């Protein structure tokens, strides 16, 4: 029993919680940006995969680490553009198109990886983001060891939270994005382009999703594995509802999820042997479903979410 | 500038033409990927075609692969018709397979005439039960079924692994996590001696026809269509919306469960955790290619199966990754979605000048 | 007309717009001067909305040109197809369905799109000062800092108008602005509009309500079937001649059949529906509808009519009080049970609740009765029998459609409503719920609906008619009750009521105070 509680006092545990939560921060931010503008992006799972591979590949081919980050973001924006074009001006089903984007991004990535590395058995590695070396704070007890296990990529996630929160709340662009997810006619009537705003939001959101994938290959690990995303994207969609489409709550939700996941990994080593490991591996998915079910009734969905808008059809 | 003008009616030939055109467009787009990868395009396609339908054996392989896809395609079609976004056919397939093994690998001893139907029924019930949970969450709590069914896939797969490493593990399998084999009495008969083609295909075809009749000719089919097209109006008209939704969930989950049973009892003979290379997700593509028509699911499933079987064989021959098949299928899905616009709208060119 | 010295601000000439075989606008000319209030009058489908949508850039005209005065007063051509261009040229439009984002505040809605998107701040201080100055000048009081979704409909409309004024419009288009207001609120709006016009704003007032047009506007332009049929000063014209111009034939004079009501088929005693805090709910509502009478429910929408309709239709259950339909106590939310009890329901929104667009006319006709023995045998649909009866109904109700197998969404609103009416009336209901049964219909279809409801009443059915159109209520109802804030007034003999009294009751005054 004490062992189970003692985990919470380990700096290692909190470091892991942040490490596991970071890709989800990117993912939830990306999903909420798309959904705030009225577009559900189920391409997220595939965009994670594509971001993870493309960012890693760029670095493997000699780009600097931040270059890899940029490549991942551009890759995500590219798939976002495709999703946006299909669902916004063409008004196709956001559900089915999103699944299609996931299938496409995943298959393109896997195929591309196989083309680049036809005959490797162990995945090639890169030099990943180094741990942070923070002056003063790094020397503190408890906090120091936690920080020492994070990288500059983690800092980027926290910066993005602030940035998205600021843009949504305080800028004309954020105003327009919030409006277009509530009533596109209000936006059109004020002379703004619904199509451009929505496609832009989906591209930006998809770029963030891709960063979530790239974090895994450029910071958390140093290689690309098949199946490494393993439902993280879908988890983000559930967490977005849980976070009521707010950046601050998205951060909290992602970190809470990271903590739960890190906790189950540690409990697993304590309880290992008596309980099958799969039970623990199921927990994050069960948490996500539970979170979704708990808040769904009260959830304040963007009013125009999943409703295509056609100019002049009123 | 192009404007979409809604069609009052869609000719049947157009719907079919769009599906065929989308398949063709997907292959063309794949050629681009092939060209980039430096592979010989024409040779690759020729080998794919040969591998999928070049011989009686190849054709039988394609039909064998199409069998689970017909089931999962029907599962997606019936659910999507009712606007129930069941993306969990993969999980329901495994639930069905697990139930099939639980019943058919020695727990019950009975002649085939009893055991085979029992295995199928159990699998269908397991798949149905698995989907009824998200349907309940959706109706009771308003929880989006897309996310719940998607996440359930991962849970079910972990559960299957747990069972295969634990209670259902076959101790004779030299440490491999796989289930005990199905009894001979629980196995679906082969259709042709020497080929892998099995009675699951016949069952799939019968189910497609039955589903078509149910949807178009019966009171419950009418209710399902009404609820799918406009649930509010259906509720206003006093139709049992909740029951219809639950029925759709049971049918859709049950069909996906049958896919699992058919694979285990007809093809593999035992359960492993890599039973399905994504049949559940491919079912979505099949259903969309078929424009959600149960009868259309059959050719769509055969096409998708052909792509997979052909790509495998091509990959073995010239070493181009068989992930090419997934690429074709994903592109086919997106192409048919875009093409579907042509069935719902006429495209009219509008001059855009100063008024 | 004597020469008008006011400068021209807007000039439309030869505007033509075709949708396939339909000519929505046929060579329409329209000139508007500064400070002028012009009415654009016409039935639904006459082409008013299309014309204004072209002006506002939602559609592009096939032929014709638009000129707008620039800041110097010189007429310059307006490029088509761009709302941005129209806004820039000083044209503002207040839509019938407000173009407001409900999750933003009134202030945010007003400044939306007026600041370059890439700017970092919202530059609130100068914008704020300007909005407050506009409110002072126009008297359009509203709370700027709560999400618009929480404002009343009247306040939302004020935000819409300020939004237009904020952009320094020279032409303001008001599309059916009084549809959501009480007569008294409408008066307030008119005062504001007159004030703004006196400052030089040109106003185009779109309406089909003749008395408002005559009260507010100095000039009336009448559209019929896409063409301009009249353009004359409103002084010297009257309702009857305008109505005739609008419809193209003399209006039939309606007369109310005398009613001899029987037993109550609907009885509400102290009924609550919905939770407190919800806007559209019923509070201690008592009401009776008897056989052979039409009881009208007046009120600004959102005052509980939705809850009342949902209760009678079976979508909502009473929380408290007793409800009797056809002498049976009703407890749950059970649409099928209501139908079985003999309630025929005409929903407010025929697209959303009344029909299933993708299904055929025949399927929509049997939507409520599909499980009945005449429509199925052993669970299988009797498709031939269904088609035959749908065909008969199509003939009897004069539904213009390609046939029983056509998808109902291809039908016009009027014909769609005829299918709904056929479904409701064929079952011989004891009680008919008619919720806004003529909304969005042209006059021909409206007259047809009215005739059918009167016939049903004559046959002995009780009719509960919920409508925002006072003309309709006074034309049909034997008794009228008014809803305000979830409460239902006593239903009073329509012959003893007038529009003014009902209007005051709609604003929350009691019948005694109002009279």
Mean pLDDT reading of chain B: 92
- Sum up the overall morphology of chain B in one term: globular
Report the biggest beta sheet of chain C as strand number plus sense, adding barrel if it closes. Answer: 7 strands, mixed
Helix content of chain C: 25-40%
Low-pLDDT windows of residues of chain B: none
Largest beta-sheet details of chain B = 2 strands, antiparallel
**What kind of assembly state do the chains in view correspond to?**
heterotrimer
Spatial shape of chain C: globular
C-alpha termini separation of chain C: 42 Å
Summarize the largest interface: chains and residue counts: A-B, 44 and 47 residues
**Class from helix and strand fractions of chain C:** alpha/beta
Give the number of DSSP strands of chain B.
2
Strand proportion of chain B: under 5%
Q: Low-confidence runs of chain C (pLDDT<50, min 5 residues)?
A: none
Give me some keywords for this one.
heterotrimer; A: 314 residues; mainly alpha; 13 helices; 70% helix; C: 515 residues; alpha/beta; 6-stranded mixed sheet; 23 strands
Give a verbal description of the structure.
The complex is a heterotrimer of chains A (314), B (355) and C (515). Chain A has 314 residues and is an all-alpha fold. Chain A is built from 13 helices and no strands. Chain A has helices at residues 2-6, 11-36, 44-60, 65-87, 94-116, 143-148, 152-170, 172-182, 184-189, 194-220, 232-242, 247-271, 277-296. Chain A is globular and about 60 Å long. The longest helix of chain B has 30 residues, at 112-141. Chain B starts with a strand and ends in a 6-residue tail after the last strand. In chain B, helix 1 packs antiparallel against helix 13, helix 7 (200-217) runs antiparallel to helix 12 (294-318) and helix 12 packs antiparallel against helix 13. In chain B, strands 1-2 form a two-stranded antiparallel sheet. Chain C has 515 residues and is α/β, with parallel strands linked by helices. In chain C, the strands form five sheets. In chain C, strands 13, 16, 19, 20, 21, 22 and 23 form a seven-stranded mixed β-sheet that branches. At the A-B interface, helix 5, helix 11 and helix 13 of A face helix 1, helix 6, helix 11 and helix 13 of B.
Describe the SSE topology:
The complex is a heterotrimer of chains A (314), B (355) and C (515).
Chain A: H1 2-6, H2 11-36, H3 44-60, H4 65-87, H5 94-116, H6 143-148, H7 152-170, H8 172-182, H9 184-189, H10 194-220, H11 232-242, H12 247-271, H13 277-296
Helix pairs in contact in A: 2-7, 2-10, 2-11, 2-12, 3-4, 3-5, 3-10, 3-11, 4-5, 4-10, 7-8, 7-12, 8-10, 11-12, 11-13, 12-13
Chain B: E1 2-6, H1 12-37, H2 41-53, H3 56-81, H4 89-104, H5 112-141, H6 145-165, H7 200-217, H8 219-229, H9 231-236, H10 241-268, H11 279-289, H12 294-318, H13 323-344, E2 345-349
Antiparallel strand pairs in B: 1-2
Chain C: E1 8-19, E2 22-33, E3 37-41, H1 48-55, E4 63-69, E5 75-77, H2 83-88, E6 91-94, H3 106-111, H4 124-138, H5 153-166, E7 171-175, H6 183-198, E8 202-207, H7 210-216, E9 219-224, E10 227-233, H8 239-247, E11 264-273, E12 282-290, E13 294-298, H9 305-313, E14 320-325, E15 328-329, H10 335-340, E16 343-346, H11 350-354, H12 361-365, E17 376-377, E18 380-381, H13 383-396, H14 413-426, E19 431-435, H15 443-458, E20 462-466, H16 470-476, E21 479-484, E22 487-488, E23 492-493, H17 499-506, H18 511-514
Helix pairs in contact in C: 14-15
């Amino acid at each position: 029993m004490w062992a189970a509680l003692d985990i919470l006092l380990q700096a290692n545990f909190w470091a892991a919680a942040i490490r596991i939560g970071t890709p989800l921060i990117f993912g939830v931010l990306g999903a909420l940006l798309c959904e705030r503008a009225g577009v559900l992006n189920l391409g997220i799972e595939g965009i994670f995969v594509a971001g993870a591979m493309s960012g890693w590949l760029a670095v493997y081919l000699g780009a600097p680490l931040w270059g890899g980050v940029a490549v991942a973001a551009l890759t995500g924006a590219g798939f976002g553009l495709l999703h946006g074009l299909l669902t916004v001006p063409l008004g196709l089903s956001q559900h089915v198109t999103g699944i299609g984007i996931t299938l496409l991004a995943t298959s393109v990535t896997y195929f591309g990886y196989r083309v680049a590395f036809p005959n490797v058995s162990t995945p090639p590695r890169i030099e990943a983001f180094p741990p942070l070396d923070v002056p003063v704070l790094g020397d503190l007890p408890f906090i120091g060891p936690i920080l020492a296990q994070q990288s500059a990529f983690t800092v980027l996630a926290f910066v993005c939270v602030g940035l998205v929160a600021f843009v949504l709340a305080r800028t004309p662009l954020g105003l327009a994005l919030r409006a277009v997810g509530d009533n596109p006619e209000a936006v059109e009537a004020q002379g703004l382009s619904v199509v451009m705003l929505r496609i832009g939001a989906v591209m930006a959101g998809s770029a963030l999703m891709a960063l979530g994938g790239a974090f895994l290959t450029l910071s958390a690990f140093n290689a690309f594995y098949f199946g490494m995303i393993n439902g993280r994207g879908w988890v983000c969609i559930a967490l977005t509802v849980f976070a009521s489409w707010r950046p601050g709550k998205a951060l909290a939700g992602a970190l809470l999820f990271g903590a739960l996941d890190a906790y189950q990994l540690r409990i697993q080593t304590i309880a290992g042997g008596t309980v099958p490991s799969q039970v623990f591996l199921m927990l994050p998915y069960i948490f996500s479903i539970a979170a979704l079910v708990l808040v769904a009734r009260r959830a304040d969905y963007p009013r125009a979410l999943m409703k295509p808008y056609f100019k002049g059809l009123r | 500038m192009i404007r979409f003008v809604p069609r009052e009616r869609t000719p049947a030939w157009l719907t079919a033409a769009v599906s065929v055109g989308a398949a063709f467009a997907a292959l063309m787009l794949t050629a681009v990927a092939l060209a980039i990868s430096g592979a010989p395009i024409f040779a690759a396609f020729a080998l794919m075609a040969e591998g999928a339908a070049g011989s009686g054996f190849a054709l039988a392989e394609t039909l064998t692969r199409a069998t689970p896809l017909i089931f999962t395609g029907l599962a997606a079609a019936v659910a999507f018709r009712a606007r129930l976004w069941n993306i969990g056919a993969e999980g329901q397939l495994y639930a069905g397979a697990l139930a099939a093994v639980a019943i058919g690998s020695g727990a019950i001893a009975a002649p085939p005439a009893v055991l085979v139907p029992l295995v199928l029924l159990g699998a269908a019930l397991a798949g149905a039960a698995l989907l009824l949970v998200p349907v309940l969450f959706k109706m009771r709590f308003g929880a989006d079924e897309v996310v719940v069914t998607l996440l359930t896939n991962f849970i079910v797969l972990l559960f299957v692994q747990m069972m295969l490493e634990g209670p259902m593990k076959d101790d004779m399998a030299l440490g491999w996590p796989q289930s005990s084999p199905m009894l001979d009495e629980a196995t679906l008969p082969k259709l042709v001696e020497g080929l892998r083609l099995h009675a699951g295909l016949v069952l799939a075809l019968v189910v497609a026809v039955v589903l078509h009749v149910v949807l178009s000719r019966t009171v419950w089919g009418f209710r399902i269509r009404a609820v799918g097209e406009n649930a509010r109006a259906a509720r206003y008209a006093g139709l049992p919306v909740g029951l219809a939704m639950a029925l759709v969930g049971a049918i859709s989950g049950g069909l996906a469960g049958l896919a699992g049973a058919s694979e285990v009892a007809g093809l593999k003979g035992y359960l492993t955790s890599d039973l399905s290379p994504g049949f559940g997700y491919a079912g979505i593509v099949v259903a969309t290619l078929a424009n959600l028509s149960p009868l259309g699911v059959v050719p769509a499933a055969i096409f998708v199966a052909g792509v997979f079987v052909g790509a495998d064989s091509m990959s073995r021959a010239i070493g181009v990754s068989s992930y090419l098949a997934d690429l074709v299928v994903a592109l086919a899905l997106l192409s048919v979605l875009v093409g579907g616009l042509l069935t719902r709208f006429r495209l009219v060119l509008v001059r855009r000048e100063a008024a | 007309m004597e020469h008008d010295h006011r400068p021209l601000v807007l000039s439309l000439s030869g505007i033509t717009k075709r949708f396939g075989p339909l000519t929505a606008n046929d060579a329409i000319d329209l000139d508007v001067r500064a400070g002028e209030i012009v009415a654009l009058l016409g039935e639904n489908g006459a082409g008013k909305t299309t014309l204004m949508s072209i002006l506002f850039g939602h559609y592009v005209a096939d032929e014709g040109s638009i000129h707008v005065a620039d800041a110097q007063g010189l007429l310059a051509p307006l490029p088509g197809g761009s709302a941005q261009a129209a806004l820039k040229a000083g044209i503002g439009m207040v839509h019938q369905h407000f173009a407001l984002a409900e999750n933003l505040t009134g202030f945010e809605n007003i400044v939306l799109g007026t600041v370059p998107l890439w700017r970092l701040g919202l530059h609130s201080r100068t914008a704020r000062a300007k909005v407050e100055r506009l409110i002072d000048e126009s008297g359009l009081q509203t709370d700027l800092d709560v999400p618009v979704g929480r404002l009343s409909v009247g306040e939302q409309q004020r935000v819409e108008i300020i939004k237009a004024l904020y952009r320094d419009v020279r032409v303001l288009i008001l599309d059916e602005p009084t549809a959501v207001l009480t007569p008294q609120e409408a008066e307030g709006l008119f005062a504001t509009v007159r004030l703004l016009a006196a400052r030089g704003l040109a106003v185009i007032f779109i309406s089909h309500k003749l008395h408002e047009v005559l009260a507010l506007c100095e000039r009336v332009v009448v559209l019929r079937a896409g063409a301009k049929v009249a353009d004359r000063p409103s002084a010297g014209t009257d309702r009857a001649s305008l109505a005739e111009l609008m419809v193209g034939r003399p209006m039939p004079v309606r007369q109310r059949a005398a009613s001899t009501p029987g037993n109550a088929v609907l009885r509400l005693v102290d009924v609550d529906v919905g939770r407190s805090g919800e806007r559209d709910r019923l509070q201690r509502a008592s009401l009776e509808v008897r056989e052979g009478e039409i009881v009208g429910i007046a009120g600004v929408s959102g005052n509980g009519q939705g809850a009342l309709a949902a209760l009678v239709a079976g979508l909502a259950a009473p929380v408290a009080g007793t409800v009797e339909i056809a002498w049976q106590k009703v407890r749950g939310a059970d649409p099928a049970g209501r139908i079985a009890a003999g309630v025929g329901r005409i929903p407010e929104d025929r697209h959303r609740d009344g029909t299933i667009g993708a299904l055929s006319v025949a399927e929509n006709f049997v939507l409520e009765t599909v499980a009945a023995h005449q429509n199925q045998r052993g669970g299988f649909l009797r498709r031939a029998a269904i088609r035959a009866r749908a065909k008969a109904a199509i003939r009897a109700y004069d539904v213009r459609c390609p046939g029983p197998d056509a998808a109902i969404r291809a039908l016009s609103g009027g014909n769609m409503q005829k299918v709904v009416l056929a479904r409701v009336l064929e079952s011989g209901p004891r009680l008919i719920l008619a919720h806004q049964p003529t909304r969005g219909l042209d006059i021909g279809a409206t007259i047809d609906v009215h005739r059918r409801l009167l016939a049903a009443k004559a046959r002995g059915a009780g009719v509960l008619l919920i409508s925002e159109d006072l003309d309709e209520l006074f034309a049909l109802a034997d008794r009228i009750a008014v809803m305000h804030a979830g409460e239902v007034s006593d239903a009073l003999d329509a012959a003893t009521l007038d529009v003014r009294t009902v209007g005051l009751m709609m604003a929350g005054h009691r019948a005694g105070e109002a009279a």
